[in-house]
Amino acid sequence: MIDTVPSSTCQEAVSYIKSLLSKDFVPKIGIACGTGLNSIADLIVESRVEVLFTQIPGFVHSTVLTKTPGKLVFGIIEDTPVVALTGSCKYYEGYTLRQVTLPIRVMKLLGITTLIVTNASASLNPDLKIGDIGVVEDHISLPSISGLNPLVGPNYSKMGPRFLSMSEAYCFKLRKLAFQVWLKSPELMKRKVELKDCVYCYTVGPSFETRAECEALCRLGGDVVGSSAIPEVQVARHCNIDVLCLTLITTVAHGYTKKSAKEAAINELKGVSSPLSATSNDIFHFHDTGSSNKSGLSRHADLVSLIKKVINEL
């Protein structure tokens, strides 16, 4: 079965949304708010308009009960017209990739030229600590390589090319700007916020990765792992939208204890107590959920501050 959403659906959604906005309002920047980071949309106070996904033709809504209802929030941040996407759906909820990425195409047709993507992730690289903010410079998407790509199927030829290069998926100019505003911010320096380049690994979820999978992704060059953002990035680049992706490290996915069942069995038969029994402490890998480590999510205010400063410079 071909995964497709008719281009007419995009136009219907755009027409409906425009009917709710001022005629002269054209968003310049889109913000995709990751799980636990919906407070980014709270930056929008001036000229604020909220549109629930359930109101928009063609939009699907999240099946995760703990999530904030999906909506588009329009308004002004730092004198810049923006639209924030909150409570977005994920592929693991049972929708198609074209359905979950439709909001990106709609935001493009509404006028955005820049997309700031945020999410939570788990560290594969010990150099990235809980609470660090990763500036994604590249990604590894095994699902995409294997055929699970939102661009598979009929091409939206009016929006982008049939064959798309992803070699420069993340805008260098925007990444540099993120580091510059961070380095120039006494507030972020005082709070010891750490910004670091990283390679993001995308997995589908909702099950988290095994120890062996985490080790393999690290060996492939991955620094962090998560179950969101990449389909949206692929569609944004297809639409010629510049992308900045910021990921908040909320937990770790490395340093697992190696356990040998064989050694434990031998020791037990010898009557020797084995220190290798599995414990709950071995299961500490969570990403992109509300269950993420609280000390990581406590940094969300710093990420919001960083994004505000970036928008002010754009």
TrEMBL record:
Cellular component annotations (GO), alphabetically ordered: cytoplasm
Gene Ontology molecular functions: purine-nucleoside phosphorylase activity
Enzyme Commission designation: 2.4.2.1
Superkingdom in the source lineage: Eukaryota
UniProt KW keywords: Glycosyltransferase, Transferase
Segments forming domain Nucleoside phosphorylase: 28-262
UniProt xrefs under SUPFAM superfamilies: Purine and uridine phosphorylases (SSF53167)
Keyword tRNA-binding attached: no
Pathway noted in the entry: Purine metabolism; purine nucleoside salvage
GO biological process, one term: nucleoside metabolic process
Pfam families xref list: PNP_UDP_1 (PF01048)
NCBIfam families: PNPH-PUNA-XAPA (TIGR01697), PRK08202.1 (NF006054)
Function summary: The purine nucleoside phosphorylases catalyze the phosphorolytic breakdown of the N-glycosidic bond in the beta-(deoxy)ribonucleoside molecules, with the formation of the corresponding free purine bases and pentose-1-phosphate.
Family: Belongs to the PNP/MTAP phosphorylase family.
Name this protein carries in UniProt: Purine nucleoside phosphorylase
Organism the protein comes from: Smittium culicis
